[in-house]
Amino acid sequence: LDTRTSAREVIAGGNPTGKFTADHLALAAAIAHQAALAVEETRYHQALVQAERLAAVGQTIAGLSHHIKNILQGLQIGGKVLKIGIDDGDQKALRRGWAIVEKNQGKIYELVMDMLSYSKEREPSLEETDLGAVASDVVELLGPRAAELGVTLAIALGADVPKCPADPEGVHRALLNIVGNALEALEGTENARVSVLTSREPDGEWVRVEVTDNGPGVAPEKQAEIFRPFVSTKGSRGTGLGLAVSRKILREHGGDIVLRSEVGVGSTFALRLPLRAVALQEGANSMTS
Fold first, then answer.
1. How far apart are CA 244 and CA 139, in angstroms?
2. Helical H runs in the chain?
3. Is 216 helix (H, G, I), strand (E, B) or coil?
4. What does the pLDDT average to over 148-159?
5. Domains of the chain, start order
6. Among 186, 212, 221, 270, fewest CB within 10 Å belongs to which?
7. CB 273 within 8 A of CB 253
8. What is this structure's pTM?
9. Rounded to whole angstroms, what are the CA distances from 263 to 203, 241, 287?
């Protein structure tokens, strides 16, 4: 008896007359019962998968809708201030209104780029990348924001850090997200400081960028959760996509982001990248397995 045996062969097996007996009927009933259970279980599994997909879509739509609503509110406020400036010929109001509009335009751009980065599976376009140059550019870009928040933003470049095979634009975006998050987490903190450090790991196989802040820290039970999409530590100010996108980019390179944090002391996010392209391929394979 195997999966190719017909129903009649199963029922009539061992009976030279080919007539059904009570034993045959009992066997047929048992087979039918098991088949019904298998069909029911398959339908249940399909319904469960569909429900999970719908829940994921609903969560995505809810998260995006909430953040888009906040951006639209900002644009509306900026538009009203601009209208006042135009009606009254008030240059200060015009500048203030435009600053609000410009800020929210930037938020829309960041949201769209995060959505594209997170939703699209992509293979990094590798080239020999100077991690120190990427880190320096990020610090330069975020310098004005750090000054606005009253945060000291410092950088220290390791002397023995070689170039690594990486997509410089992707790594730049990941690091920009991490440093930007660190700055926002320190808003209102006295003697706030964020430091960016590049180094080569002792085994010589990896390079890293560490972003350290003296902010509130992340509780142990929340450290894994913050890398999930639409989970934000910044309330309405964040999309909840930045950390998820950053980790995705690093893992596409065969690397990862490692968090060390202590509540009331601060956090360190270490962005690790392999120095060998083969390590990248191994990392990509492990992600799909």
1. 21
2. 7-12, 22-88, 91-119, 131-149, 168-185, 242-252, 277-288
3. coil
4. 93
5. 1-120 (no CATH), 127-288 (3.30.565.10)
6. 221
7. yes
8. 0.64
9. 30, 22, 31
